[in-house]
Amino acid sequence: MGKSVYEMVTERIIEQLENNVIPWEKPWTGIRNGAYNRITKKPYSLLNQMLLKHDGEYATFKQWTALGGHVRKGEKSEIIVFWKIQPVEEEQEDGTKEVKQIPLLRYFNVFHISQVDGVEPSSADDLNDIEPIEKAENILHDYWSREDITIEHMASDSAYYSPIRDLIHLPLFEQFKNANEYYSTAFHESVHSTMKESRCNRAEERKSKLVAFGSNEYSKEELVAEIGSANLMNIIGIESQKSFRNNAAYIQNWLSVLKNDVKFIVSASSKAEKAVKHILGQA
């Protein structure tokens, strides 16, 4: 008998893992909170968030000028601080010299966008114009409505399944870089939701619904969810090379917790197959 699609996808994941270390990329754009730099789009550190008076975009005088902006005359700057590592050569008692890395506190003067003319605020949400994929939409909505799972789409920087509330929380569709990555994430959380006793009953294997993040039990459940997601993407024909590599990279992260024991993938794959069949209504 030929290999099943589940076996083939599992083999491809293992092959991908054996080739190299792959960096995992979060497939959605985070919603920024608080103060952040207009150029890098990165939020400032907690200390700097406390130092700055406003939420939203800040930049240096030079950065605003480069964007075509003009800081209004008389506007006062605020400061952000950062550590700069300075190499300092010290002479030891025996006459030898040793270079020590000394952290020095430095600062930048920055201005808030409200102090600047000639520059429009950028979209804080960085939403993308992407189109839904009908086949994937049908599978998700059929499963979610059949199982009466609560779905929460919200502008946020996280995706999760809450067993206590039987709720799947997802960032907005438009936050994702492309549609495939949204469905990969939605399938991942949907596979998690099959852990419920009335579905595939994996909750018992985790001993507790509040099992510690990063523990072996948590890692095994993450493998099940990501392998299940990879299979669903493959089955309905919307897997891309990038989404598959990201699936493998995510699995690689959790395998490191399990000391890179690839046998856990094979074990998780059989649980993922059961979960996928339940989602497709084939159980």
Q: How many structurally independent domains? A: 2
The end-to-end span amounts to 21 Å
Helix content: 25-40%
The mean pLDDT is: 81
Structure summary, number of beta strands:
9
Helical run tally: 8
Biggest sheet, spatial arrangement of strands: 1-2-5-4
Beta-strand content bin? 15-25%
Class computed from helices, strands and strand pairing: alpha/beta
Low-confidence stretches: 206-210
Broad shape? globular
Biggest sheet details: 4 strands, mixed
User: What's the Cα radius of gyration?
Assistant: 24 Å
- Helix-strand string: HEHEHEEEEHEEEHHHH
Can you characterise this structure?
This protein is α/β, with parallel strands linked by helices and 283 residues long. Helix content is 39%, strand content 18%. The strands form 3 sheets. Strands 1-2-5-4 form a 4-stranded mixed sheet. The longest helix is centred in the C-terminal third of the chain and has 20 residues. The radius of gyration is 24 Å and the shape is globular.
Keywords:
8 helices; four-stranded mixed beta sheet; three-stranded mixed beta sheet; globular; 2 domains; alpha/beta; about 280 residues
Q: Topology of this structure?
A:
Elements: H1 5-19, E1 35-37, H2 46-51, E2 56-59, H3 61-66, E3 70-71, E4 78-91, E5 97-112, E6 116-117, H4 134-147, E7 150-153, E8 160-162, E9 167-170, H5 179-193, H6 216-235, H7 241-257, H8 263-279
Helix pairs in contact: 1-6, 1-7, 1-8, 4-5, 5-6, 6-7, 6-8
Overview in brief:
With 283 residues, the chain is an alpha/beta fold. It contains 8 helices and 9 strands. Helix 1 crosses helix 6, helix 1 crosses helix 7 and helix 6 packs antiparallel against helix 7.
